[in-house]
Specification:
The protein starts with a helix and ends with a helix. It has 2 domains: 193 residues, MFS general substrate transporter like domains (Growth Hormone, Chain: A), CATH 1.20.1250; 213 residues, Growth Hormone, Chain: A (Up-down Bundle). The chain is built from 20 helices and no strands. By secondary structure, the chain is an all-alpha fold. The protein is globular and about 65 Å long.
């Protein structure tokens, strides 16, 4: 546990630093160009590249020492941050004031690459858990990791805007470079044993992860694996566990609907309060994410994590139906608090199941594949739901049929059009969850996990 706690500390510093740069960059881009196109395109590019690179990053984690992969990712981040600082410092005046400026987008891409390099930690830490901790500690460890991500998010929400206002992008990048150097140096001296330990060698751990028949060894067992992305082998490993693909697709669908939050939450919040108040409220509500992770680290997930997954989804989709039912800041705050509390559970449940049923040597690629598929859903929704809301739901609740149909009790105007999208998403999510929890695939996966 001592090693794990040290790794969590380093991860907190790295994730906070990378989020710090990305959040500040987003604020800076809007303030510099006064264009929402800059921030929407940045968000879409970020999600798309994350989806595309996750499988490759998972392969890097599998084929190298996890510690080496994390150090390498920090060095890559450091390189891009330094180049970005030099470009920002020596670029001609006015080079970043328009979205048509090539230097503006070069600067954006440089820092984007720097922050994305840190995503190696998001895969490397969960793959280390089954190697350094006993199985009974996996769910709690995943909860601690979720708490770490939540703390990083909360810290970043507060300090990014303040730092940008205080010292500008020069100050932001200088702090990021120093923090990245510090994290890399500390990680370098932390001893991390990555040999297959008694935890992964025990019969109890090996049996559930035996994805290939022992009577007929496969090529992967007969000779060393080639150091490649090996998507086909990863898909084969996932297919060999009944219900595992169904779990990935269920999470993907959740992310697809979750893209509604990504695209519309800020717009809905700002329809009810000032930008300053919304920023403070969102920072406070992010504490709920941390509390969710702390609960998992304390209580664990029990013997039936899939049952918890479905129960939590039922709660969150019901919240999604009703937390915008009236234009109320109190309803919004309570609903968002509940919704964010359950976010860490989804990640922890998926990580715990993967760690139980997937061989350690392929765990990084499976994590990367799942992340790639799941992350692909959010940008699709984020890109689509904005125009759909703008040209369909807002007119419907402003001067369309919705005004007479439900406007008397639901309310009218731009904010109510956005609210209607949330309510419909909640209804769809609830129906899909109720159908999925009765499917044969999830019953098979639940049985496999309990073996």
């Amino acid at each position: 546990m001592k090693t794990f706690y040290r790794l969590l500390g380093i991860t907190l510093l790295v994730i906070t630093t990378n989020n710090f740069v990305w959040f500040a960059l987003t604020y800076w881009a809007y303030l510099s160009t006064k264009s929402v196109i800059s921030t929407s395109v940045m968000g879409g590019i970020f999600l798309v590249i994350t989806s595309i690179t996750s499988i490759w990053i998972g392969s890097i984690v599998d084929h190298n020492k996890k510690k080496h992969a994390m150090i390498g990712s920090s060095l890559v981040s450091l390189t891009f941050f330094v180049i970005g600082l030099l470009l920002f410092t020596f670029a001609p005046s006015g080079s970043f004031n328009s979205i048509t400026s090539p230097l503006f987008w070069i600067f954006i891409v440089l820092l984007l690459c720097g922050t994305l390099a840190g995503s190696v930690y998001n895969i490397a830490i969960p793959t280390l858990v089954p190697r350094i901790l006993p199985e009974k500690m996996h769910d709690r460890a995943n909860g601690m990791f979720g708490t770490t991500v939540g703390i990083a998010f909360g810290i970043t929400s507060v300090i990014s805007g303040i730092s940008l206002a205080f010292g500008g992008m020069n100050f932001v990048l200088t702090v990021a470079i120093i923090a990245t150097l510090l994290a890399t140096s500390i990680l370098f001296i932390i001893p991390v044993s990555e040999e297959k330990s008694k935890f992964s060698e025990s019969p109890e751990s090996l049996q559930p992860a035996a994805l290939y028949s022992p009577e007929k060894p496969t090529t992967a067992q007969a000779k060393p694996e080639k150091k490649s992305v090996d998507i086909a082998g990863t898909i084969k490993a996932i297919k060999s566990v009944p219900g595992l693909f169904a779990l990935i697709f269920f999470t993907t669908f959740n992310n697809f609907l979750g893209g509604v939050f990504f695209a519309l939450m800020d717009a809905y919040g700002l329809s009810l309060m000032s930008v300053e108040s919304w920023g403070l409220l969102w920072g406070a509500l992010s504490m709920s994410f941390i509390l969710g992770g702390l609960y998992i680290s304390k209580k664990g997930l029990g013997s039936s994590p899939l049952k918890i997954l479905f129960r939590n989804n039922i709660i969150t989709w019901i919240v999604c139906i009703f937390f915008t039912i009236q234009p109320s800041i109190i309803l919004l705050a309570i609903g968002t608090f509940i919704w964010m509390f359950f976010v860490p559970f989804t990640e922890a449940i998926e990580q715990t199941i993967f760690q139980k049923v997937v061989p350690p040597d392929r765990l990084g690629r499976v994590f990367g594949f799942a992340q790639s598929i799941e992350q692909a859903a959010s940008p699709i929704t984020a890109f689509l739901i904005g125009p759909i809301t703008q040209f369909l739901f807002i007119p419907f609740m402003t001067d369309g049929a919705g005004v007479e149909l439900i406007g008397g009790w639901y309310g009218t105007g731009t904010g109510r059009g956005i609210a209607l999208v949330f309510s419909i998403s909640g209804i769809v999510g609830l129906l899909i969850t109720l159908i999925a929890m009765r499917s044969r695939s999830y019953k098979l996966l639940a049985q496999k996990y309990k073996k």
